[in-house]
Write a sequence for this structure.
């Protein structure tokens, strides 16, 4: 079992790291806001505890011994970690401010992110929002994005993430369409209906409609009269009575509330758990990123 490091040894390592980097006890003392004698005693105790000599001392210089050089880089890492902790704590206390760049797909941005912004901006008036919507997945580093909302599995291990609540994908039609055509009772019935489908802009492929049938998930690609390359166009066509389409519930919710859309085949809808908020490691201590994450999660 490893011996736990004591408080005196920890302070000795910090004093050693700073003295070795600055070349004198006096300079180390000034940088740490203590007396030179405190630095000297702390390093002497450390040498006694470790059983080695860390410095060769002369009246004019302080030189690392061979053992001291070997340990000094590790002690410097400890000092840098301690300073980073202090900076993170300062950022945590800081008021969110500056430009917050948020990236999302068009439907997520319109239906989930944009409605949250007025309350967020009222609470954090020093933050300016730069909302970038595209169905193309952008690089957070190359585009200088602070936080992105993404659907699907994530392959980039350099990103930090927070899973967002699940959503459902299901079929919808307008009351006008259902006044002309009886609603389907099973996914197989869709072959007798007019449908509207989505074509992905990045791949050119048609969206495969998923359904939960018993314990299995199946998917079909209906023969559609209208094909659009944005989800908003699909929703607009469904609302206009062009036929049956499939959408995420967060996209259709307001139209359902306004009685412009009717959910169909609800027993066959699928639930997805693949929506995530992601941000780069460099944004970990950004107060605006943390504030927006908290705000978003409190409303979903």
């Amino acid at each position: 079992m490893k011996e736990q490091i004591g408080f005196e040894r920890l302070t000795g390592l910090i004093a050693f790291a700073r003295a070795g980097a600055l070349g004198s006890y006096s300079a180390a003392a000034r940088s740490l806001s203590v007396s030179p004698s405190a630095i000297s005693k702390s390093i002497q105790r450390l040498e006694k505890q470790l059983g080695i000599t860390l410095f060769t001392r002369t009246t004019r210089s302080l030189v690392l011994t061979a053992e001291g050089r070997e340990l000094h880089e590790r002690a410097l890492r400890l000092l840098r970690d301690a300073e980073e902790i202090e900076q993170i704590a300062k950022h945590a206390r800081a008021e969110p401010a500056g430009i917050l760049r948020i990236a999302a797909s068009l439907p997520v941005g319109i239906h989930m992110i944009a409605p949250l912004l007025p309350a967020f901006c009222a609470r954090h008036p020093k933050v300016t929002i730069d909302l970038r919507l595209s169905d193309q997945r952008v690089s957070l580093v190359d585009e200088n994005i602070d936080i992105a909302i993404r659907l699907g599995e994530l392959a980039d291990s350099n990103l930090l993430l927070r899973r967002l609540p699940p959503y459902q994908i299901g079929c919808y039609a307008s009351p006008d369409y259902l006044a002309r055509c009886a609603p389907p009772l099973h996914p197989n019935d869709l072959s007798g209906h007019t449908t509207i489908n989505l074509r992905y802009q990045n791949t050119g492929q048609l969206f495969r409609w998923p359904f939960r049938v018993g314990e299995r998930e199946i998917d079909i690609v209906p023969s559609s009269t209208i094909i659009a390359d944005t989800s908003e166009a699909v929703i607009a066509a469904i609302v206009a009575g062009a036929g049956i389409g499939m959408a995420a519930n967060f996209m259709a919710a307001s139209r359902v509330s306004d009685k412009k859309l009717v959910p169909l085949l609800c027993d066959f809808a699928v639930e997805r758990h693949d929506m995530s908020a992601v941000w780069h490691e460099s944004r970990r201590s950004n107060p605006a990123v943390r504030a927006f994450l908290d705000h978003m999660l409190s409303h979903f």
